[in-house]
Design goal:
With about 300 residues, this protein is an all-alpha fold. The protein is built from 16 helices and no strands.
């Protein structure tokens, strides 16, 4: 039977949160692929292609382990389905929409509410206890993440439809973090991460079908046909370097991390995203962003330390 005690197990380790941070940081590189692809495909189609490639890569790891499902509770299966739909599919669609229709700076600021949502859900659903020093360091991590996202501290204009998409994305990703933790206590890493992708692909196929985007002209547009090598390269980079590899690292960390802690280490995605913007889109990091990055690393380290004492 699935119990709260199993979530707070001996599998939690001091390095688990840093694996979550590494996976999230690699996820932060996805803007390098996703922003150019927004000029080629509809946001839903980008996410669908991403899942097609990821599932193709994951099948050799999934199929030999399907027998594990006989020993998995229905509750863990429910967490898996929710995590795949909310995080792998719907949340990613809204993130892509936010980048397409919003100010990337404001989008990143809004996404920093995600840890607050995942912490609240973890406390309510899994009974996670918060350490005495959790709140001040968590607040500092959120503030530092917001500062990293702002190139000009005197200008926060440009709030638009992307802000709303980012809010929805933060909600789905925050809940997905908690749901994924519920999966990892009962499944092996390859099966859990692989099946999440399968659920995501099924969800995305339903979504693009409902929106009438399954035609050949939508799945492979004229813009894609005009530059096939560039388009395929971007899709492969998105699915592997910024998708599959980070997902495996993230799940490995999540299996050893409390759900209430993991959300704050996921904020490393903000730091990576700012760096990618600097390298690929020639927006240099301002001095305050560099300082905020250092503060963020210290703050999440202290969050982990506070939780390790609980």
């Amino acid at each position: 039977m699935y119990t709260r005690g199993r979530v707070r197990s001996s599998r939690e380790t001091s390095y688990g949160p840093w694996l979550v941070a590494l996976g999230a940081a690699l996820w932060g590189t996805e803007s390098a692929w996703r922003i150019p692809l927004n000029d080629v495909f509809a946001p839903d189609v980008i996410v669908w292609w991403e899942h097609v490639l990821l599932v193709a890569l994951a099948l050799p790891f999934i199929l030999p382990r399907l027998g594990e499902l006989r020993r998995v509770s229905n509750r863990a299966i429910a967490w898996l389905v929710f995590s795949g739909i909310a995080g792998s599919a719907v949340g990613t669609v809204f993130f892509t929409l936010a980048l397409k229709h919003g100010n990337p700076t404001v989008v990143n600021v809004v996404l920093n509410i995600q840890p607050v949502l995942s912490t609240t859900a973890a406390c309510l659903l899994f009974g996670d206890k918060l350490g005495r020093g959790f709140f001040p360091w968590a607040a500092l991590a959120v503030a530092a993440g917001a500062v990293i996202s702002i190139a000009d501290l005197g200008d926060l204009t440009g709030v638009d439809a992307g802000t709303g998409y980012a809010l929805i994305c933060a909600l789905f990703w925050g809940m997905s973090t908690v749901a994924a933790r519920g999966v990892m206590v009962e499944m092996s890493l390859p099966l859990a991460s692989g099946l999440r992708l399968v659920v995501g692909l099924i969800s995305m196929t339903i979504i693009i079908g409902a929106r009438g985007l399954i035609s050949s002209g939508d799945l492979w547009t004229a813009a894609a046909a005009a530059a096939p090598a560039k388009t395929i390269g971007a899709l492969v980079g998105l699915a592997t370097l910024s998708g599959g590899i980070p997902l495996v690292i993230y799940f490995a960390g999540l299996a050893r991390t409390r759900a209430s802690t993991a959300g704050y280490f996921e904020m490393m995605q903000t730091l990576a995203g700012a760096t990618i913007t600097w390298v690929f889109f020639h927006h240099a990091l301002e001095r305050h962003q560099v300082y905020a990055g250092i503060v963020l690393i210290v703050a999440v380290a202290m969050v982990q330390r506070a939780q390790s004492r609980t």
